[in-house]
Amino acid sequence: MTASAALLPCSILILAGGRGQRMGGRDKGLVEWRGKPLIEHIHDVARPLTDDLIISCNRNAERYTRYADHLVSDPQDDFPGPLAGIIAGLRQARHAHVLILPCDAPLIDRSLLMDMLRRAAECGEKPLMLRQGGQWEPLFSVVPKTSLGLLEEAWAVGERSPRRALLECDIQALDYPGNDRRLANLNSQELLNGIS
Fold first, then answer.
1. Which of 23, 59, 85, 145 is the most buried (most CB within 10 A)?
2. Would the pLDDT of 3 be above 70?
3. Is the C-alpha dihedral spanning 107, 136, 179, 48 positive or negative?
4. 3-class DSSP state for residue 144?
5. How far apart are CA 159 and CA 147, in angstroms?
6. Separation of alpha carbons 135 and 124, rounded Å
7. Which residues contact 44 (CB under 8 A, 6 or more apart)?
8. Could you tell me the CATH superfamily of domain 3-194?
9. Element (H, E) at 136
10. Dihedral of the CA atoms 2, 131, 153, 71 (nearest 10)?
11. Cβ–Cβ under 8 Å, residues 168 and 127
């Protein structure tokens, strides 16, 4: 781990366990863009910031394993959504905080992640979530492991939205403008094709 990341040692969880409906059912993290899978773009930025990189995936584990220290998967095989992946990642994480990222945001950069880690260090035991143009972005969060119990309780009573579940955890906001292209969610082939 780099010295600059030492201000908040963290595990990093990349969520790649979805159905990929907007990708025609393809495993989104393995869809190629600019010559390499989406997961590799995220990995290349995240890897230097942690010694505990976790990927949540529900298929193609043999392909994802090269990018991660640990893989987690959902407890059931019906793709229950990202909150299941977040809970599984928090259970597996070795550090007290987990930086959560989606696999389909290949324009993220080190500056963005360092900004999140710096702000999360100021939040202590409160989770941090990006808010872009006033809209919460739950898949760009830093969550302390102490929030795991609250998220598990939310799951047990039927909550499946990571945004709603995290907002119950006294969340802190990190605001970004709506036009910050680093946060672009490229979750369809059309969107990938449209990025220059």
1. 85
2. no
3. negative
4. strand
5. 15
6. 23
7. none
8. Spore Coat Polysaccharide Biosynthesis Protein SpsA; Chain A (3.90.550.10)
9. strand 135-144
10. -40
11. no
Neighbours of 35 (CB within 10 A): 6
Q: Is pLDDT of 20 > 80?
A: no
Alpha helices (H) along the chain: 38-46, 61-64, 82-92, 110-123, 148-156, 162-167, 189-194
Residue with tokens 């366990």: 17
Tell me how far CA of residue 90 lies from CA of 121, 136, 154, in angstroms: 17, 20, 14
Query: Model confidence over 92-144: pLDDT tens digits?
Result: 999 999 999 999 999 999 999 999 999 999 998 999 999 999 999 999 999 99
What H or E segment, with its residue span, contains residue 171? none
Pair of tokens at residue 71: 């893989």
9 by Cβ neighbours in 10 Å (0-12 / 13-18 / 19+) ranks as middle
Look at residue 178 and give its three-state secondary structure: coil
- Separation between Cα atoms, residue 166 and residue 95, nearest integer Å: 19
pTM above threshold 0.85: yes
* Cβ-Cβ contacts under 8 Å for 176 (sequence gap 6 or more): 130, 131, 132, 133, 183
Phi, psi of 135 (to 5 degrees): -100, 130
Strand pairing report for 128-132 and 70-72: unpaired
